[in-house]
């Protein structure tokens, strides 16, 4: 027994554990494709549930890519380049997670490509689909220099590796494309809810603003958190503490902006007395979602991280910084879940003379949890592999990498 | 001008300008599109007389049989909505066939669209099953096929057969004003709302004549005449969806 335990390294245990969860998720996915969405607890009253939350959250968590790439390549703050590199890789994983979740969630995954062919320019969901597709391509290009780092590729396909590496020279242009696409769909994921007049709690213009600000905070927080955790867990990752400290400080201020908008948003909704909106808000403030709202979103998701991240002494302590960043991530996920649920749990009657508002309920089924857990494990696994084989968290190496790209460019081509 | 910084700044400016132009043109286009939903010559409307409706639910059964609707789904829902005098009042709800339909606006693949005659039509071969339209519809008129419906339909009688194809698993479905009957009838020279074969099944089956169907753009049609003479209302008119289903409220003096 002891010998077996000694032979299993922590890396193998982590890897194996994730594979097991992924296998369970894949089995759940197969069941869904085979038997249909009746295996979920979704209904015509609550047609969007856990998977939409995972989808929205993984896209929000990918926002570090566009914001940090913009900081590096558009504002010209080159010292953040190594963090932007990590964020780009996380973004690539996050968007593939979102696409996987959506494929599960739509009733006809075989027709996923229809949005590319049959355009409805009025539909925010169409806009989101197009943006996600194009942005996934941008992220793929942005991540090419990262894949060029793969040891096996460098030894066996040196020319291909050099080519992938050279994509780095287009980074500023990719950053602009990424910024535009991300600004559009990160906001319109909120607006997707915000344009629905049938759902008074959602029907407001600023939900898109809240979505993008919270996404920027959450995305950068996950990037820094993942970097710090990797650096502690493995020798394949190393970080420069100063840079992560600065990014954490920025996250603190982004959270302040988010909380500010969120406060006025909630306050203005309080006094509209619109049927459905008042009740929806009450679900959050003292209904079934109130713990999520007050503790998950406000206290742990925003107030405490703001204090921890803006206080220089607290931020300097790695443990407290990591706690704060994890809380930010949790707060953004809670916000996505609450937004979706608070609008759907309220059923506004269309009938004359009926009580205006009825309530419904939703608790995800086991198969939804399994498939969701499988997708999250895929994300963790992909990131772990990236840390180990692509050195996505490596703050010492970027300089060398850039130098190398330059030399590759200047070497004159001498025909074969 | 060979300075790299200026190039980058110029590029950013260009990018922002481009994005603004595209966004602006889209917003303007959208605003214009909303004003010009083409309805052509005819526009079908339904009038439901609540002073006559007895809540027998025959409309729902006829709808099920004609459109092969699975047992878990109903395109037409009849709800009891209070009393007038000693009489119960019912509100049947088909699809409202809104003039400004939220479901048409939100569909990412244009699976919901306006027909020239105002009917909001579903393309079941195009629907991807995202269910955004279900969430957007204020009338709960849309249902998702959570599971495959196979085997015989208990609502379809032995002596007849449905007029439309059964929907596959994973798409959203809804009432169509039986446009298959309208189109067939018009091709045969019949008048929808007058000739039974060209009129929605729920209207034909109603034993008390509580449903009236016709072309609201034709001042001589049944619906136009009855709407001119009686007070009517529509469901959730405050939303601005402009439904094409009109209700004649039950009042004390109309009671038998």
Quick overview:
Chain A has 416 residues and is an all-alpha fold. Chain A has 19 helices and two strands.
Task: Describe this entry's structure for a reader.
The complex is a heterodimer of chains A (416) and B (256). Chain A is an all-alpha fold. Chain A has one domain (46-410): Formate dehydrogenase/DMSO reductase fold, CATH 1.20.1630. Chain A is built from 19 helices and two strands. Chain A has helices at residues 2-7, 10-35, 50-61, 63-73, 81-105, 114-117, 124-142, 144-147, 151-156, 158-166, 171-194, 207-233, 241-270, 277-286, 290-310, 312-316, 318-344, 366-390, 398-410; strands at residues 346-348, 357-359. In chain A, helix 5 (81-105) packs across helix 7. The longest helix of chain A is centred in the middle third of the chain and has 30 residues, at 241-270. With 256 residues, chain B is an alpha+beta fold. Chain B has two domains: 1-36; 40-254, 2-Layer Sandwich (Alpha-Beta Plaits), CATH 3.30.70. Chain B has helices at 4-35, 58-67, 102-106, 132-136, 179-187, 201-205, 222-229; strands spanning 44-49, 77-84, 87-93, 112-114, 120-122, 143-144, 172-173, 211-215, 245-248. The relative contact order of chain B is 0.20. At the A-B interface, helix 6, helix 7 and helix 11 of A face helix 1, strand 2, helix 3, helix 4 and strand 6 of B.
Question: In the CATH hierarchy, what is the architecture of the largest domain in chain B at level 2?
Answer: 2-Layer Sandwich
CATH class of the largest domain in chain B: Alpha Beta
CATH architecture of chain A: Up-down Bundle
Could you say which structural class the secondary elements and strand pairing of chain B correspond to? alpha+beta
State the CATH topology of chain A: Formate dehydrogenase/DMSO reductase fold
Mean pLDDT of chain A: 91
Distance, first to last CA of chain B: 90 Å
Q: Can you tell me the overall shape of chain B?
A: globular
């Amino acid at each position: 027994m002891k010998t077996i335990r000694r032979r299993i390294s922590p890396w193998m245990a982590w890897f194996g554990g994730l594979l097991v969860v992924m296998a369970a998720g894949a089995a759940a996915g197969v069941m869904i494709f085979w038997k249909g969405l009746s295996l979920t607890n979704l209904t015509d009253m609550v047609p969007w549930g856990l998977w939409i939350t995972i989808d929205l959250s993984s896209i929000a968590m990918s926002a570090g890519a566009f914001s940090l790439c913009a900081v590096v390549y558009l504002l010209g703050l080159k010292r953040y380049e190594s963090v932007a590199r990590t964020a780009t890789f996380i973004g690539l994983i996050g968007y593939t997670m979102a696409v996987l979740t959506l494929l599960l969630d739509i009733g006809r995954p075989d027709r996923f490509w229809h949005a590319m062919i049959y355009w409805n320019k009025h539909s925010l969901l169409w806009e989101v689909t197009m943006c996600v597709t194009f942005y996934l391509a941008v992220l793929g290009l942005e991540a090419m220099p990262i894949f060029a780092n793969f040891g096996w590729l460098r030894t066996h396909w040196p020319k291909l590796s050099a080519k992938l590496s050279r994509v780095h020279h287009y980074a500023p242009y990719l950053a602009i494309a990424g910024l535009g696409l991300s600004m559009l769909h990160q906001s319109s994921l909120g607006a997707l809810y915000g344009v629905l007049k049938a759902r008074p709690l959602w029907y407001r213009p600023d939900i898109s603003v809240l979505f993008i600000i919270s996404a920027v905070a959450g995305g950068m927080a996950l990037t820094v958190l993942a970097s710090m955790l990797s650096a502690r867990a493995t020798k394949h990752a190393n970080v420069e503490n100063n840079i992560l400290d600065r990014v954490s400080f920025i996250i603190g201020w982004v959270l302040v902006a988010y909380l500010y908008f969120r406060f006025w948003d909630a306050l203005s909704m309080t006094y509209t007395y619109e049927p459905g909106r008042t009740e929806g808000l009450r679900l959050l403030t003292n209904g079934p979602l109130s713990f999520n709202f007050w503790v998950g979103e406000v206290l742990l998701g925003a107030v405490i991280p703001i204090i921890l991240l803006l206080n220089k002494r607290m931020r300097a302590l790695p443990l407290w910084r990591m706690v704060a960043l994890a809380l930010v991530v949790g707060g953004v996920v809670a916000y996505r879940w609450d937004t979706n649920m608070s609008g759907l749990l309220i059923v506004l009657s269309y009938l004359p003379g009926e009580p205006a508002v009825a309530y419904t309920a939703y608790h995800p089924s086991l198969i939804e949890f399994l498939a969701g857990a499988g997708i999250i494990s895929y994300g963790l696994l992909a990131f772990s592999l990236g840390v180990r084989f692509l050195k996505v968290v490596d703050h010492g190496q970027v300089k060398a990498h850039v130098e190398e790209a330059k030399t590759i460019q200047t070497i004159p081509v001498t025909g074969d | 001008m060979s300075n790299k910084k200026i190039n980058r700044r110029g590029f950013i400016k260009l990018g922002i300008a481009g994005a603004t132009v595209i966004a602006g043109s889209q917003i303007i286009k959208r605003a214009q599109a909303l004003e010009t939903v083409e309805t052509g010559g005819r526009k079908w409307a339904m009038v439901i007389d609540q002073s006559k409706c007895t809540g027998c639910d025959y409309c729902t059964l006829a709808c099920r049989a004609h459109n092969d609707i699975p047992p878990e789904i109903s395109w037409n829902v009849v709800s009891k909505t209070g009393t007038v005098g000693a009489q119960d009042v019912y509100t049947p709800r088909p699809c409202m066939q809104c003039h400004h339909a939220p479901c048409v606006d939100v569909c990412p693949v244009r699976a919901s669209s306006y027909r020239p005659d105002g009917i909001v039509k579903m393309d079941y071969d195009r629907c991807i099953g995202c269910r955004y339209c279900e969430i957007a519809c204020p009338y709960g008129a849309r249902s998702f096929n959570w599971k495959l419906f196979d085997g015989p339909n208990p609502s379809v009688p032995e002596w007849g057969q449905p007029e439309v194809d059964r929907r596959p698993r994973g798409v959203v479905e809804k009432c169509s004003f039986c446009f298959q009957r309208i189109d067939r009838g018009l091709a045969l020279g019949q008048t929808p709302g007058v000739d039974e074969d060209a009129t929605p099944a729920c209207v034909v089956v109603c034993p008390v004549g509580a449903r009236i169907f016709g072309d609201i753009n034709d001042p001589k049609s049944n619906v136009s005449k009855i709407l001119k003479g009686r007070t009517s209302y529509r469901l959730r008119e405050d939303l601005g969806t402009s439904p094409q289903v009109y209700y004649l409220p039950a009042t004390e003096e109309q009671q038998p």
